[in-house]
User: Fold this.
Amino acid sequence: MYQYKYYTKWFDTESMRKKAFEELFSVFRHLLLQTNGDVNEALNWMTQLNNRYGFADDLTGFIDRLKQEGIINEENDLLLLTTKGNQTIRRSSFNEIFSHLKKRGFGSHATPFPGKGFERLPETRPYTFGDPIENIEPSRSIGNAIRRCGLENFNLHEDDLEVYETEHLSTCATVLLIDISHSMVLYGEDRITPAKNVALALSEFILQEYDKDSIHVVAFGDDAFEIKVADLPFLSVGPFHTNTKAALKLARHILNQKKHENKQIFMITDGKPSCIWEGLRLYKNPFGLDRKIVNQTLHEALLCRKQKIEITTFMVAEDPYLQGFVKQLAEINKGRAYFTGLKNLGDYLFIDFIRNRRKTLR
Assistant:
């Protein structure tokens, strides 16, 4: 007797739920960066947007899952971002930018030069004094001894030994400078959120892929100060001028304490240097390019060059007036300058980071 089986279309509900959560989380992350890490305000904005555009059936379920996943928690009737949530935000930013870069091609971090390093290559070479014993290739070494003296009189000499080549992997110390002057949110264009997003992605990339590297983040307005990677979502713009000199000086001080082969500064800014410190007095001039401010800033770039620290400037504003200054800074430092839109910022920064890891900066 035959048994009939009926088939229906299969829906992968778990994958659909996961995709829906990831899409909502992407919106939440963007709003969280815009609200400087204020979870309650970000969710309030998200609710208002959903009421208008109806992109989610149930935001309550999304919020509950954020709590279940340990991304946010509730303290004294306030929702706060947890340590795990902070890492999740970084990973989400990294995945967003890195997935886009993979479509366009992405380079390896390894240098093309053989030497002492971490990755073993299939090629071998004669043993030299000081080579690690664990790199000896036994088959070739024993084969050399047999060819030299035969199997019956077998003895192994130092000249018979061969070792694996190793691939030299450069290490890199990076300081990322983020402009938090008031112009980063002026004229209806939000420039600080993409800057924070790229900083989160780069820091997560380094933490994941290059544990021998270091990443430091410095914010600069009237003055410059280092912030922790975990504090990036909470970074906000203030009523500040732009002290580029202080930013470069602090970055140089941080990098001078590092022993990495490569040292580099990435600077994200949208304006000209407009202030410097003279003792305890802040000298400022927001109008035009003040020669006193410019000269001291360029001198700081020259000091970076003398200490083999390369500066890459990402100008995220389309102002022909400032291009001359940025080009001059790049020329003095022997660095690079990009005049890029906000959408391409992550592309240029990541590609440049990989490029710099392939060589020892001079």
